[in-house]
Predict the structure.
Amino acid sequence: MDSIIVTGNGPVSGQIPIAGAKNACLTLMPATLLSDEPLTLTNAPRLSDIKTMTELLQSLGAEVTSMSDGQVLAMSSHNIDNHIADYDIVRKMRASNLVLGPMLARLGHAVVSLPGGCAIGARPMDLHIDALTALGAEIELKDGYLHAEAKGGLKGAVHEMRFASVGATENVLMAATLAKGTTVLKNAAREPEIVDLADCLRKMGAQIEGDGTSEITIQGVDRLHGATHPVVTDRIELGTYMLAPAICGGEVECLGGRIELVGAFCEKLDAAGISVEETDKGLKVARKNGRVRAVDVTTEPFPGFPTDLQAQMMALMCTAEGSCVLEEKIFENRFMHAPELTRMGARIDVHGGTATVTGVDTLKGAPVMATDLRASVSLILAGLAAEGETVVSRVYHLDRGYEKVVQKLRNIGAKIERVKTS
Ligand code: UD1
């Protein structure tokens, strides 16, 4: 198992290229199941989660070829000969459940393992099931698997979700493209990854309107055709690297970044005293003088502050002047980075879904353990600002969502290396 060693090394400066979005790619890939013609994705990120989705699609009979050092994924689903998404793959990654909608639409049946809980919460599938049931699917839970069937095909319907789930919106969006008639999804999620999926589906011949708003209308068509689509920029990777100069001082340009992907996050950076400037290549972020100010943050569905940047923002707030409250509203158990940051000298008090952080003058390097993807990168950010050496173990979490993290941070002057520990 590898570890990452970070040593606080003062201000950072330079440029960081931002990759294609993991979460967009993970929903664009199953869209291949909707058509017997090829779907090619460009600007794909090189991550272990993408390999897991590749493995899952291949297990269903799809062809997935990785080209250009993994940045191009050429997929074809002309021969889907298995309709069972096996527990052994699904348990590795919850996004595996995104094959349910497309398989149901294309084949009329699908068997998908329930993903089970994960470190950040229970994460049930009820919203997916309710929405697909509204489209005429019959779904039953047997032996830990969802058995879904749409005899005579899916039928368009008006459905309002109880909560704007990202994954359920994506499953319904894909399923409804091939349903008979019109589907109106109310209280839909508005994340940029959903707009990216809708853009790709439109290129494949789908008729979709309203993506990016909370009401999406999909007019079903008989078949979808092939397409080529570039994956949208990863707003979470973007936000993460924007925090490097915020926490260490200095100035970094994040190439490919756009304000509209991280609007609520930029408002908080501004309140904390960090400047963000749009350039013709991306976003330039700087902290030139003084300490960061403490700001309260509440996570919300897009366009609110993303839960996937909460751990990284907490790392910044650990070094801020004053106290603030971070409230986690999306997942019930997403403060596991707090005790690890405390080992580095941070002052954090967690009560249920709320963490009160009181900034300290300096964090101190320590051995820490990552518990999930975003938690691990928050520990690296904290390590960049700490005095001495921080050793982050269980780095495999990072490989799920950050490509070339060591190289990208070294290029802006960080002292960081990856080492093999047994
Ligand atoms: C996606 C992202 C993840 C991000 C999350 C919230 C991907 C691959 N992952 O996850 O990085 O943190 O959005 O922005 O895109 N819920 C239910 N019932 C359901 C579905 C969800 O109660 O059927 C709950 C979940 O337990 C959670 C909340 O709704 O508390 C948000 O989940 P959801 O929006 O579905 O997130 P994901 O699509 O799993």
Remarks:
- The chain has a mean pLDDT of 95.
- The radius of gyration is 21 Å.
- The pocket of uridine-diphosphate-N-acetylglucosamine is lined by residues 23, 26, 94-95, 121-128, 163, 165-168, 193, 307-308, 330-331 (CB under 6 Å).
